[in-house]
Amino acid sequence: MCISIEEMNPTFLYTWKGTRDKNRDESAYHSHEHLELAFILSGEGKYRFEDGIVSVKEGDVLIINPGVKHQALACPEAETPATEFFAGAKDFRISGCPENALPVPEGGHVLHTAGELWQRLFKLYSAMEAEKSACRQGRYFMLKAYLMQMILLVFREACRSEEQADGESVEAVNKKNIVEQIIDYFEDHYSEKISLDQIAENMYLSPFYISKIFKSETGDTPIRHLINIRLEKARERLAGGYSGSIQEVAASVGYDDAYHFSKLFKKRYGISPSRVRKKA
Length: 280
Known about the structure:
Order of helices and strands: EEEEEEEEHHHHHHHHH
Mean pLDDT: 86
Radius of gyration: 24 Å
Low-confidence stretches: 1-6, 161-168
Shape: elongated
């Protein structure tokens, strides 16, 4: 399936962001004459389609093609209700698809995304929200440009093979890449103030998602992993004959409180920082 420039010149219709009432169904079971993309930014939800009910969660993209009847359903069992971002488009055509429609994965309606793809989509969503709020000249064309990128990214992913040549799933590879980025960041910035919220914002992901995949890949939480890096760097410094005070050692690995640092150090290594320095 191929796309030419002439075929990909959509009309931007709208965007909308909101959080569902997890105890109430959407009022109408309905369809559109245009394409609607629904990005699940956080939480969980359920949707009714003609061929059944599907569950959605953070990172999912609903591809709602023209004429497809759908309805958001109550999901009282969800720990966090779904926050969604919708974008509408028309006046485009992709080879092999009806007008204003995208291919859907395995005949379904939900595209599961993760890692780099979700980062890129989330960044585009953030840019569209900022552009809407700014009300600057050329806003429509900026929104259209962002929307076109969204459509193309979703199209590419919907057409991709689910498995890579080596048999490892795309989602698994994306998760590994995210975790590797976080660990590299820790190694380069362990002496600075670091928070999970800051990392999540930089990567255009939610703190919950980052914590979840980090633990699934490493068996540890991001913050615990950062603490271990800091303590190991401090131990190496002390064992190498560093002559500065314990306060200076603590500060060099990101701790303002020397007492708190010493407690963490002794808990991990069974010996105080000062004893390690004396042995050196």
